[in-house]
């Protein structure tokens, strides 16, 4: 994976800057300090949808598929029990939620 270009906001129109596609990858954003949260509740719901859509060729249990997805998160992603409550905790610690 190529390294992200340095953060130079004056270069917002330069295709070789951090605003290029290589600068918008999860690893590039992590390199610049972004933290990604993975919600266990969302993984659990996604697992149910996969089973419901018959996208379970190994016929694993709901729990087994959720564990499989949880064990294969992107390196550095933080697994939370539920992101809604986690966001509240982070806001109380001084972080701000932005979309």
Note the main attributes of this structure.
99 residues, mainly alpha, two-stranded parallel sheet, 4 helices, extended
Structure explained in plain terms:
This protein is mainly alpha-helical and 99 residues long. It folds into 2 domains: 34 residues, no CATH class; 65 residues, no CATH class. It contains 4 helices and 2 strands. The chain has a two-stranded parallel sheet with strand order 1-2. It starts with 25 loop residues before the first helix and ends in a 7-residue tail after the last helix.
Short structural description:
The protein has 99 residues and is mostly helical.
Strand order of the largest sheet: 1-2
Q: Which structural class matches the secondary elements?
A: mainly alpha
Write down how many β-strands occur, each being a DSSP E stretch of 2 or more residues.
2
What about the largest sheet? Answer: 2 strands, parallel
Low-confidence stretches: none
Total domains, how many? 2
The secondary-structure element order is HEHHEH
Round the mean pLDDT to the nearest integer and report it: 85
What is the alpha-carbon Rg in Å? 18 Å
Residues in helix, %: 25-40%
Distance between the termini: 26 Å
Q: What's the tally of helices?
A: 4
* Basic shape: extended
Strand-residue proportion? 5-15%
């Amino acid at each position: 994976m190529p390294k992200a270009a340095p953060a130079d906001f004056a270069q917002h129109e330069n295709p070789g800057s951090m605003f290029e596609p290589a600068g918008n990858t999860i690893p590039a954003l992590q390199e610049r300090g972004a933290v990604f949260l993975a919600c266990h509740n969302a993984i659990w719901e996604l697992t149910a949808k996969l089973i419901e859509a018959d996208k379970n060729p190994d016929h694993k249990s709901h729990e087994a598929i959720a564990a499989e997805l949880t064990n294969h998160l992107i390196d550095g992603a933080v697994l939370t029990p539920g992101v809604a409550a986690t966001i509240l905790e982070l806001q109380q610690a001084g972080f701000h939620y932005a979309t």
